[in-house]
Specification:
alpha+beta, D-amino Acid Aminotransferase, Chain A, domain 1, six-stranded antiparallel sheet, five-stranded antiparallel sheet, 10 helices
Amino acid sequence: MTTRPLKIAIVYPCDSEVRRLATRENNRFATVFAAFAARGVDARPAVYNLAQADELRDQLLECDGALVWVNPIDAGHSRAPLDALLRDIAAAGVMVSTHPDVIMKLGTKDVLVDTRAMGWGSDVHRLDTLDQLHAKLGARLAAGSIRVLKQWRGHSGIGVWRVQRDASLASSQTSIGVIARHAVRGSPELRLSLDEFAALMAPYFEDGGHMVDQAWQARLTEGMVRCYLVEDRVAGFGLQAVNALHPPVEGSDSAEFPTPSQRLYHPPDLAHLQGLKQRLESEWVPELERTLGIRRDELPLLWDCDFLCGEPNRDGDESYVLCEINVSSVAPFPDSAIEPLVAATIARVELARGREPSSRDSLRTG
């Protein structure tokens, strides 16, 4: 008896015309498709847009598994409708990575608060209301702390603000002056009152939204380390100078950000990061699983952790502070992650294939 090849869908966003013309070669995942093909897996493009969600649902129900690359906000639209679709097909027996329920635990800025007691933790707090922002952020700024505010779910620096007290502005009994800058490139430095800044943040609290308040990391301009993981193993690194929130270069008349560097990719054996790799694999990921209630077989098949350098330890060893975890759409990524990703996907799909699935017929469009 011949077993049919595994069917894997790779889900990414594009318009209806791209969906009609999509092939395994005309997208940024061509090398992943080729790696699946080399292992005898039938991997197919599955283009997502809201207008054709029913077509995508039917396509995914024909597959054994789906790898999903869609940002929390794409082209100005939330991926919430896609998450509902993915929950349905996962309940019908299709392996989904990353499952939306796991994204909500790992892939929002709340993970910084939930894991602040871990070795990668920092001075970080959740702000649920504008009143909390005004009172608690105001007190931290008044004490001289520089803070970074982050909307709870986003990407690409959208909704991320550096804010500090502006000593040049007179304070009132209820408000102080602040200097604020959005992480979106080209954003100007703003000087305004705390009241005005709070009003500017109001949209991030709409529809149940909130923000996370993290202490500024002074070593930001030394660069960020992005650790790419396949399940619980480090599969590569990305190194980049990420300077979007750093003040203008001292002595420069320009208000522009320092120019960021291109991200450089490295395999998992990069010598000077072996200590970080060991801590992630043996200490932090297991602790993360326990803290958030995530099993190993629920971990994203591909995800990354962004770290900034913290203050060196007493023994002189480097320390790292978690900046964020990316789960929804991790791309690009180092070539060293492709083969581990393919192998882990096959293993997880075969595991899920051995379980008794729920009926898929009721989910198909008529």
